Amino acid sequence: MSEPIIELKHVDAGYPGVTILRDVTFDVMKGEVFILLGGSGCGKSTVMKHMIGLNPVLSGELRLAGLEWSAKTRAALCRKIGVMYQSGALFGSMTCLENVLLPLEEFTRLKGAERVERAMMLLDDVELADAAHKLPHEISGGMRKRVAIARAMALDPDVVFLDEPSAGLDPITSSALDDLILKLKTETGKTFVVVTHELPSIFKIADRCAMFDKARHGMIALGTPAGLRDGSKDPFVLKFFNRGEIHGK
Question: Of 156, 175, 196, which one is at a domain's C-terminal end?
Fold first, then answer.
């Protein structure tokens, strides 16, 4: 049995004065692909912001690698995570190689040649070594997201967070990105936490998922995609998994 790498216990999620989700409890296990899902505006991105330390939880406990986010643990915990944001968030004036090099230059003592070797290896892992010297505007949206994944993995984090990786991509490119996530999981053994509402991706890559509902202000389901689709007694969950995305409620 794998051990938990992330633990949420009775977490209220949101912002000061605004509670979006209440009493959220689940664990993310080491080495799994864990999906945060639900209709638009349900709070899944808010939960991810708590998990990566951008915003403190309103109440409850949230632990990453056994540590709670705090001023004392922030530096150590930030080194344990990598994040790919929805747009990729690459620096437009930097080449793909320079984008991946940036965290290595800022946070490691590797020499210049060693940094370049590491960055090129990461670009090769996401099948973009040939695009190393191109600027972000010279490559496709799907390629930009691959570069962003390479940058997120530059410091060898324990957990990689992917925010809406399929957003804005055509089905073929999205499927290829799913294949990449599965390949990286297999080859590295890292944990991936993915925010998405794309059913094809959910069924293809998820080991387990947590589903949130805007109307009920909480987590309403936890399990494998197939288990929730075939075994849930919740009408909202069944509708989501059997008929497609639900926008709010």
Answer: 156
Nearest to 193 by CA among 1, 51, 9: 51
CATH number at residue 195: 3.40.50.300
Which residues are CB-contacts of 90 (< 8 A; sequence separation ≥ 6)? 96, 99, 136, 144, 147, 148, 151
For the residues 77-100, what does the mean pLDDT come to? 91
- Domain enclosing residue 150, as ranges: 90-156
Q: Is the pLDDT of residue 248 over 60?
A: no
Q: Is the pTM of this model over 0.85?
A: yes
Give the dihedral of Cα atoms 108, 110, 112, 116; nearest 10 deg. -80
Query: Which pair of structure tokens corresponds to residue 95?
Result: 């080449």
Q: Would you state the structure tokens that stand for residue 219, as one six-digit string? A: 């987590």
DSSP 6-20: EEEEEEEEEETTEEE
Domain endpoint, select from 156, 171, 193: 156
Asked whether residue 85 is assigned to any structural domain, the reply reads no
Task: Determine, yes or no, domain membership for 249.
Answer: no
Residue 130 inside a domain? The answer is yes
Contact 37, 237 (CB under 8 A): no
* φ and ψ at residue 129, rounded to 5 degrees: -60, -35
Q: At 245, is the pLDDT very low, low, confident or very high (cuts 50, 70, 90)?
A: very low
State yes or no: pLDDT of 201 exceeds 70: yes
Residues 162 and 238 both lie in one domain: yes
- Residue 192: beta bridge partners? 33, 160
Q: Which long-range contacts (CB under 8 A, 24 or more apart) does 118-122 make?
A: 118/154, 119/150, 119/154, 122/150, 122/151, 122/153, 122/154
